[in-house]
Write a structure and sequence with these properties.
Layout: H1 6-17, E1 23-26, H2 32-41, E2 44-47, E3 60-62, H3 71-78, E4 83-85, H4 86-90, E5 98-102, H5 107-120, E6 125-129, E7 147-151, H6 154-158, E8 165-170, H7 178-181, H8 184-196, E9 198-207, H9 211-215, E10 222-227, E11 234-238, E12 243-248, E13 251-257, H10 266-283, E14 305-310, E15 313-317, H11 324-333, E16 342-347, H12 356-365, E17 366-372, H13 376-385, E18 391-393, H14 397-406, E19 413-416, H15 429-445
Parallel strand pairs: 1-2, 3-4, 5-7, 5-8, 6-7, 8-9, 9-10, 10-11, 15-19, 16-17, 16-19, 17-18
Antiparallel strand pairs: 11-12, 12-13, 14-15
Helix pairs in contact: 1-2, 5-10, 11-12, 12-13, 14-15
Length: about 450
């Protein structure tokens, strides 16, 4: 088994429960608590590299994120050793239909909303996958839910060849993880696996803009596109009436009123609408926002999360905005108080993306930008080429928040949506977001 992260530990537990002898190999270092957990399981393991012991088994199980080009995978294949991805390994143990949720941005929020409204409607639903609760933990819980809602990354879907889904949601498509997949085309093919692996009676909820690129993998799957323009079948977000509607088989169902959703940004209305649409389809009966208590749903941390208001300035944590598309969406979706403007914090470790669209959006939506981290210079160059020169270059997020606050007035918004990963200065986007929260409180108190 390759990978001793949180999903790898769940896979090891599941394999042990199934009566398998397990050996876990991880090329890096893992937290001490993970080592202790593996020791208690009674499995063999190695850290810091892969030895020949990896190839002594009958099956190589790959936890989330293992690349097909990694030397250990290439060697296993050259030896004819069978390999299986996380999702395919777990599926035979689930015993419940699964609705998958993927996309470049918004998948955690959409997954969470879908699980919330189904549970609120009395449907026993487990929420798992790339959301912090590994898919392998579901069959380990000792309970069999009526349904599993699984957030799935492009990495997980790349290895998905046998699993069969009851339905799927693709929130949106934009370039991401190109370094892992090798090209945007390969990235899209991985996302399309969700639809390809959905059964003939299943459904897929997608953006109208992505319909053509995803249709090739749909087979007989029913497709429900989402659009702010009216559609014959699918989800229509009606800006004039401030309502989300599901048009299906000549009928119209109200999913929710916009004012029922307690999330920031128009993109979160799309996430909520996709979730409610999927809930209607999987249940094969009407379920609206009131039935699903959507008004009680709060945003997951670090996804356009309102941190607070200090000195009349709104602080928003979108640390999960780790690519250009996510940051552009946040900028275009979030609204300031009347007369207010946005100051954005950008930077971190890049993914090799082009920043032209980001620079254009910043010039349209922001009064100022503060750039920090490894990628700060590249973003600065793109902003300058776009004719936007209202920016400062600093070294850390601490400096960035202080400079941003100095540039604001009452009614303005400071948005952390970095368009980059956190890995140059933080272990993950969560730690970056929590640090931003503390810095906002500090400048507000000062």
């Amino acid at each position: 088994m390759i990978g001793a992260g949180i999903s790898g530990e769940a896979l090891a537990r599941l394999a042990r429960k199934a009566g398998c002898r397990v050996f876990v190999s991880d090329g890096g270092n893992v937290p001490r608590e993970r080592i202790s957990a593996l020791e208690k399981l009674g499995v063999g393991f190695e850290l810091g590299g892969h030895t020949d012991r990896v190839f002594e088994g009958d099956l190589l199980v790959l936890s989330s994120g293992i690349s097909p080009s990694s030397p250990v995978v290439e060697r296993a294949r050259s030896m004819g050793m069978p390999t299986v991805g996380e999702v395919d390994f777990v599926f035979p143990f689930l015993g419940s239909p699964v609705v998958g949720v993927t996309g470049s941005n918004g998948k955690t929020t959409t997954t969470s909303i879908l699980g919330h409204v189904l549970n609120a409607a009395g449907v026993s639903t487990a929420v798992a996958g790339n959301i912090g609760n590994p898919l392998g933990s579901v069959p380990l819980s000792g309970e069999t839910p009526s349904l599993v809602v699984a957030e799935l990354s492009s990495f997980q879907l790349h290895w998905c060849e046998e699993a069969s889904f009851a339905g799927g949601v693709v929130t949106n498509l934009a370039p991401d993880h190109i370094d892992w997949h090798g090209s945007y085309e390969n990235y899209v093919l991985a996302k399309r696996r969700l639809i390809e692996r959905t059964g003939p009676d299943g459904f897929a909820v997608v953006q109208l803009a992505d319909l053509d690129i995803l249709r090739g993998g749909s087979g007989s799957v029913r497709l429900y596109p989402l659009s702010w323009d009216k559609v014959e079948q699918g989800v229509h977000l009606d800006d004039a009436a401030q309502v989300a509607l599901l048009l299906m088989n000549g009928s119209v169902r109200e999913l929710f009123r916009f004012d029922q959703v307690r999330l920031l940004g128009r993109h979160n209305l799309e996430n909520a609408a996709m979730a409610l649409c999927a809930a209607n389809l999987v249940l094969n009966r009407p379920l609206n926002g009131e039935d699903g208590r959507i008004g009680e749903f709060m945003a997951p941390p670090h996804r356009c999360e309102l941190v607070g208001r200090y000195g009349g300035v709104t602080f928003v944590d979108d640390s999960k905005g780790t690519n250009v598309a996510a940051t552009v969406t946040a900028l275009r979706s979030l609204k300031c108080d009347p007369g207010g403007t946005k100051v954005i914090l950008l930077g971190g470790r890049g993914k090799g993306e082009d920043y032209q669209v980001l620079a254009q959006t910043v010039s349209e939506e922001c009064s100022y930008a503060v750039l920090y981290g490894e990628e700060g210079d590249r973003i600065a160059e793109a902003l300058s080429k776009a004719g936007f020169n209202r920016w400062s270059r600093v070294g850390s997020l601490d400096e960035a928040v202080r400079v941003a606050f100095q540039r604001t007035k009452e009614g303005d918004m400071i948005l952390l949506s970095p368009a980059c990963t956190s890995w140059d200065q933080y272990p993950n986007y969560k730690e970056r977001g929590y640090h931003f929260r503390r810095l906002a409180q500090e400048v507000g108190a000062g």
